[in-house]
Amino acid sequence: MSLKKYSFLSIFCYGLIFISPLILASIGLVKSTSELITATAVMYILGAVVLAIFYFKQREPLAIESAVKKASAPKIVIYGLVGIFVALILQSIAVMLESVLFGEATPSENTQNIIQMIMEAPAFILATTIAGPIMEEFVFRRSILGIISRYSNFWVGAVISSLLFAFAHNDGHLLIYFFLGFFFSLEYKATGRIWTSMITHVGMNTLVVLVQLAVQKGLV
Question: For 84-140, how does the pLDDT look when each residue is reduced to its tens digit (9 = 90+)?
Fold first, then answer.
């Protein structure tokens, strides 16, 4: 599979999964909120599997991956796990910058909605902590960053893909998601493996969701 075809199919699949709740509701396949949330979780998991299949079928080398010696599995895991805490620090810095530039920072509407959906349908936790981050890394980092980098350079691709990543979350915290997207791009570049940023993204989402759920249940 060529890089162009891979990128197009990955982005198309992600878009389809993204609007799948509206499609399912409009054709009457789901009739309640909990059914809709559960169905969305299933679609996210299916989307992550399909994008992984696209990844293993894509053979054309990407500039980002061929520019460095591909990291070993232990290095990928170490970078990915350390990246979780770096990403959390960057998120805190971005929150402070937003407060300085735009006034008092408001809680992430996206995160609050996710927590409410998990409370409504627990299966949705798999979509937000695992399937969602996997899809986003395949799409925003490997597909969008990969194809843009081919025709320009890494830095242009990182900026554009990070902006698109921020706009896709659509909750008013563009700076936070841009910082995170750019950091995930740097992780990908440093190791030449998408699995590095994927470990960080999955780990960060999991940690944030678990903490928020603990707060909701009064455990902390």
Answer: 999 999 999 988 888 887 775 666 666 777 787 887 778 888 889 999 999 999 999
Do 195 and 72 contact (CB within 8 A), yes or no?
Answer: no
Catalytic residue among 136, 137, 187, 201: 136
User: Measured between alpha carbons, how far is 136 from 187 in angstroms, rounded to an integer?
Assistant: 14
Residue 1 CA to residue 204 CA, distance in Å, equals 31
Distance CA 192, CA 190 (A): 6
Name the burial class of residue 79, with classes exposed (0-12), middle (13-18) and buried (19+) by CB atoms within 10 angstroms of its CB.
Answer: buried
> Which of 98, 137, 169, 173 is the catalytic position?
169
> Tell me: the pLDDT tens digits for 170-187?
777 788 999 999 999 999
Instruction: Identify whether 201 is a catalytic site residue.
Output: no
Q: How far apart are CA 78 and CA 54, in angstroms?
A: 26
**Which DSSP category does 67 fall into?**
S
Task: Indicate if 65 belongs to the active site.
Answer: no
Tokens linked to 203: 């780990």
Which tokens belong to 206? 């999991």
CA angle 171, 80, 94 (to 5 degrees): 35
